[in-house]
Amino acid sequence: MLYSFTQRQQLQTARQELSHALYQHDAACRVIARLNKEVTAAREALATLKPQAGITTVPQPAVAAEAGGIANQPTEQAGMTDDVIEKLQDKASVLTLERKKRGKTVPEELATHEQLMAFKTLASHPGLHSASVPGILALDVHNSDTSKILTGGNDRNATVFNKDTEQVVAILKGHTKKVTKVIYHPDEDLVITASPDSTIRVWNVPTSQTTLLLRAHEGPVTGLSLHPTGDYVLSTSDQHWAFSDIRSGRLLTKVADQTNIPLTTALIHPDGLIFGTGTANSQVKIWDLQEQKNVANFTGHSGAITTIAFSENGFYLATAADDACIKLWDLRKLKNFKTLQLDEDYQIRDLCFDQSGTYLAVAGTDVR
């Protein structure tokens, strides 16, 4: 009996010790979880602050506004000087000459219908953006080195990814809201991004740093397009479009659409002398860049224009809107020559012609 009593006492003590140890372990787990959370928050805050070092912001007072998150308006427009216009015209002449040399012949290496039908997924890369804030909203591929892919996400970051090595080359942190537009510079290791935080950033990929912060707009940036010279960028927001120099950061011109209808997208024509904008009231407007005037309007869609695309030869324009409809326009005759009506609930996110102008890719609920 005495032995049994001793055993019971020891069991009771062991139980108490075990209960105490479990309680301590639980408390330790909670402390670790809290510290992990704090470390993650601190890292994110640090990453947001880091790119601010070495930024050229135009105008200078906007640097002070950066901390407060207010986008200052570059009030002074440098204007479309004769030098700029001459540069645009020279580039257009060179491009037109190159196009004439290529002629209308379809390149031999162009994929056939059968080859396209056999396309299948080669790889899938889910880890480019935050898993807690999922969603890739924009994508661009480097023009000459097609292994380099640039994406913009809901997590406020842009990511440069090498699809051949399957490595993330750079994570570009600095925007305070999601990244909705991205452009990979065709000739340099430069990236241009835009966001609803009303800023446009130019990044150096090797250093992952912002080299230039453009504040051409007060509202969310809805359209972004690089000029063929590689030196200027067109952007839209609210009822305005702006043309800025990505080397000096100067705002060259900012024009308000007289109808006061918000602009939803923008794209520069392959020649670089005209450009198109989409509006919230279903219109596509063509503008003369040198004269800064609206020269033609295309109507026929219903719902806001979501995306537009020019064919490389510069003759055709494809447009899409919230009406699940794609329209093809002939810019020489200013006429709609084909309409593709997709399923009612199909959401068209992006359009793109291939280099020969034979095929049109549609990205939306699926890829066609």
Q: So how many helices? A: 4
Q: In percent, how helical is the residue content?
A: 10-25%
The total count of strands amounts to: 23
Q: Determine the structural class based on helices, strands and strand pairing.
A: alpha+beta
Radius of gyration: 27 Å
Q: Into which percentage range does the β-strand content fall?
A: 25-35%
Which sheet architecture does the biggest sheet show? 5 strands, mixed
Q: Which residues sit in consecutive blocks of at least 5 with pLDDT less than 50?
A: 59-74
Strands of the widest sheet, in order across it, are 1-9-8-7-6
End-to-end CA span: 84 Å
Mean of residue pLDDT values: 87
> Helices and strands, in N-to-C order?
HEHHHEEEEEEEEEEEEEEEEEEEEEE
Shape: elongated
How is this fold's topology laid out?
Elements: H1 2-49, E1 56-58, H2 62-68, H3 82-102, H4 113-117, E2 136-141, E3 148-153, E4 157-162, E5 167-173, E6 181-184, E7 190-194, E8 200-204, E9 209-214, E10 223-226, E11 232-237, E12 240-245, E13 251-256, E14 263-268, E15 274-279, E16 284-288, E17 293-298, E18 305-310, E19 316-321, E20 325-330, E21 335-341, E22 350-353, E23 360-363
Parallel strand pairs: 1-9
Antiparallel strand pairs: 2-3, 3-4, 4-5, 6-7, 7-8, 8-9, 10-11, 11-12, 12-13, 14-15, 15-16, 16-17, 18-19, 19-20, 20-21, 22-23
